[in-house]
Amino acid sequence: MIKKLLLILVFLLIYKPTNAKENIMILKLKDGDVVIELFNDIAPKHVERIKKLAKEKKYDGVVFHRVIDGFMAQTGDVQHGNSNSDKFNLKMAGTGGSEYPDLKAEFSGASHERGTLSMARSSDPDSANSQFFICFQAAKHLDRQYTVFGKVIKGMEFVDAIKRGEGSNGEVTDPDKIISLTIEK
Asked: Looking at per-residue confidence, does 105 or 13 come out higher?
């Protein structure tokens, strides 16, 4: 009995739930707030990057430059896609990143389901930087090929309301944008 109580006590001292406040991100969109749980346990370097850029306010004003109905909404080009910046260039949005180096892939068994956040990249698996996408529905063909780093836990209806793009590439004219991206304190 004492051994069991001791084990429980040790567990309570070291256990840290995955939805600890420092792993909750608030994505403010025109229609409302989206609450996102960050997966620090499976993608620590990517979560660290997202948090760093969010704390630096780099995502505030960044447009959703590529939005494909039934698939995903892509954003995060802090170099060319920030509508608040004098360097904003909608035609270039989606081609840039941040001032920081690209990240090595952190592929996992996490599946691309509705509400999943995953890093965008080029054909090089180790080229993720600042851009990410949110899945509108399951996209299992992306599993183990893109780094999943979070999931919407509240407010998916506001993601669903993001303006869709046109054509097979989902390019958006007059796109919606991230009002702010913050880490809960």
From this structure: 105
